[in-house]
Design brief:
globular; 0% strand; mainly alpha
Length: 219
Amino acid sequence: MRKVNARVRGDGEKTREALIQAAGVLAAERGWSMVSAKDVCDWAGVNGASINYWFGSRDALYEAVLTRIPDVIFSQELEIEMVQYDTAEGAIRHFLDYHLNNINAEKNWRIRVWAREVTGTPADQLIKLFDKMGRQRMAAMRQFFADYLEIDDINDLRVQAAQLTTMSSVMLLIILSPKIRNHAYDGFESDPKLFGELIKEQIMAGLSKAREDYRRQIG
């Protein structure tokens, strides 16, 4: 009996994952409003009743899709890597290196779904996800900027501005189509390592100037 149950659980996990992958790919291509439950099941190659059986509803499936997005930007694994650094500057540099070094990686559906959501009318599920997970992840990352700027309150507007400025630069590069990005800025192809370093140093220079300005205001 145990072996049968284990097999069923294993098959169920595979089915759930297949449905999430199918929903993600189709949502990235068409937008979720244009994807039917039948489309997802056909793409995943599963029974038409699978979505309701494993998720309860089409909306619940999409919520599962959206939960995969935060890891693209700031995963717990990346946070663990960042806290290993002795200084907040080292941690922020690692965050920038992580994304700049992977900028030419093949785009996956999580990036494209996220881009659709943040540049259009976000789904209710994304707002709920942000309230549930996003705020916590944003706060965790904001602490690195507060430490760098030597400001105690992570919700200080100066800390928020530093985080937004830095993340906006990175997120724009993630969203942009490689063909458009490389056509507009051939540095990504001619000398990607050097170009990435220049981008990182300019971002860090802006943060450094902000920190010096705040120090003068206090002093």
